[in-house]
Design a protein that fits this description.
The structure is a single chain. By secondary structure, this protein is mainly α. The protein has helices spanning about 1-20, 30-40, 50-65, 70-80, 85-105, 110-120, 120-135, 135-165, 170-180, 185-195, 195-210, 210-225, 240-255, 260-280, 285-290, 295-315. The protein is globular. About 50% of the residues are buried.
Length: about 325
């Protein structure tokens, strides 16, 4: 009972404190995911069976909520601006991941699950690619845990690096969207950096997430093992929050009467995201840590460092056009 009360109080604090006390907004997202991890690993998540099921829905709800405060025209322009960069990153990430997987002598499914999770959008991409690859449960868990751990690190260090390099809001938004795995961590990192970074990062990241569809097709037809006489069966999974985000942005763009309420919903969604980050962190437990073999982690770390540093340098030296005007 004490554990449950402490968990609820801590979760509520990550929603309420940043909302009421503005100085806490800069560090709350990073501290939230770290606090969730520490709580779960050291004491155990008393609501693990529930938080593992609701965090995905909560993440989607916060993304849609933030769309309620954005202009659809700017959203589409930013998404189009990041199209070529996301394509380059995905091709490079999957190709390099496949090469590194052979060097490290990793199983094919583990290699492509980690590579897809790193290149597109973390857990969502892994969940979409797993049926196409016919991946086993332990392979999915291993890839998810690897990507999750790197997401937590990125959430903590990206804002610090961005300030050190004196990135503008737009520059940081593009870098985070192109280099961080999961949508939640992109949003959390950009939230710490500023409102413009949050808008740019969210939009470019959602455009990157759309690549789940063609990549899943590619994996199913060209990578997955095929039994004798078995045809290709595809189950494409498009994250529901992407069309939801676009619909929300369209409503507040073309129905001015909704803009006041939309701005309020967007503001609430920011703090709901911090709460969600705490719950996401709390989903990592000791068993998942044990599932992290050295070689998959090594693949994930090497791939993440190469892509993260490459995009950072590209943004820093102006090779990425970060203008969304």
């Amino acid at each position: 009972m004490i554990k449950r009360i402490c968990f609820i109080v801590l979760a509520a604090a990550f929603f309420i404190v940043p909302w009421l006390w503005s100085p806490a907004r800069d560090w709350a997202p990073g501290i939230a995911v770290l606090a969730g991890i520490i709580f779960a690993v050291t004491w155990g998540n008393p609501f693990a069976q529930y938080t593992s099921k609701i965090t995905s829905a909560m993440l989607g709800a916060t993304i849609v909520g933030m769309g309620c405060g954005m202009n659809l025209i700017k959203v589409l322009y930013a998404g189009a601006s990041g199209f070529i960069y996301t394509l380059i990153g995905i091709v490079a990430g999957i190709g390099l991941g496949a090469l590194l997987g052979k060097v490290l002598k990793l199983p094919k499914n583990a290699t492509f699950l980690v590579s897809v999770g790193t290149s597109i959008c973390g857990g969502s991409a892994i969940a979409a690619a797993a049926p196409a690859l016919k991946a086993k449960a332990h392979e999915i868990a291993m890839a998810s845990a690897t990507v999750f751990a790197l997401n937590a690190i990125a959430l903590l260090i990206f804002p610090a690096v961005g300030h050190w390099l004196d990135f503008s809001q737009e520059q940081f938004g593009f870098w985070a969207a192109l280099a961080i795995h999961d949508t939640s961590s992109v949003v959390g990192a950009c939230f710490q950096y500023g409102d413009n970074a949050l808008e740019v990062g969210t939009v470019v990241k959602l455009a990157r997430a759309l690549w789940i569809v063609p990549v899943t097709l590619f994996l199913s037809f060209f990578i997955a093992d095929k039994s004798d006489g078995e045809g290709r069966k595809l189950k494409l999974r498009i994250p529901w929050f992407i069309p939801g985000f676009l619909i929300a942005a369209a409503l507040v763009t073309w129905l001015p009467v909704l803009r006041g309420a939309g701005g309020w919903i967007k503001e609430i969604s920011k703090y709901l995201m911090i709460l969600t980050l705490f719950l996401i962190g709390a989903n990592l437990n000791r068993d998942k840590l044990k599932e992290l073999g050295l070689r998959p982690v090594l693949l994930g770390v090497i791939l993440w460092l190469i892509l993260g540093v490459s995009w950072c340098l590209a943004v820093y030296y102006g090779l990425v056009n970060c203008s969304i005007q």
